[in-house]
Amino acid sequence: MKKLIVFTGAFLFALTSIHAQSDSREFQIGAKAGVNFSDVSGDDIGDVDSRTSFNAGLVAEVPISERFSFQPEVFYSGQGFDLKEIDQDNVFDTDENVEYQLDYIQVPLLLKAYLIEGLSVEVGPQFGFKVHEEIDSKPNDDGGDIEIDSDDSNIKDFDTSLAFGTSYKFHNGVFISARYTVGLTNIIEDNAYLGDVDAKNNVWQFGLGYMF
Question: Of the residues 18, 61, 88, 122, which has the maximum number of CB atoms within 10 A of its CB?
Fold first, then answer.
């Protein structure tokens, strides 16, 4: 993680030597939506498959200079992971994928740097607020949902991540983006039953949006 932070800082510093210009010097607001591929990783987590879900929300862009902008966002993000590979005892009695669904309201605060007009890279912290948690043994059909009450959950309500990615904005306001967020904090509560479990959220996001 330290190497990742050092590399990110060095990369952003190098951008100051690149001649680039934002396509707008005015405050902009827009909407976006896309697909998520999420999982969890850590020293105490075995191999798990990714969950495929979606994200949707609002984005703003506040120009700082010709080259840099501040980009806050707020969006719904379907996350979690696929349980099928670790359901060795066939607890759920199904041949379908079994998903552990963790859904968040995510608030990234990104520094955006333009490489050329329209093309940018972005990096910054992201703060997640859990809004829903369930196990779905039939993710492709109705039924099979086991909702987990907050009083019975071992998953923390708050999560922090580091987000970095790239986007391209066309002259008509449409933009496409690709982003990866790596978890910085454990998502599982430290308690007497589970102990201190190392498990962090990771998400690939690909999306389409429009700046008004």
Answer: 61
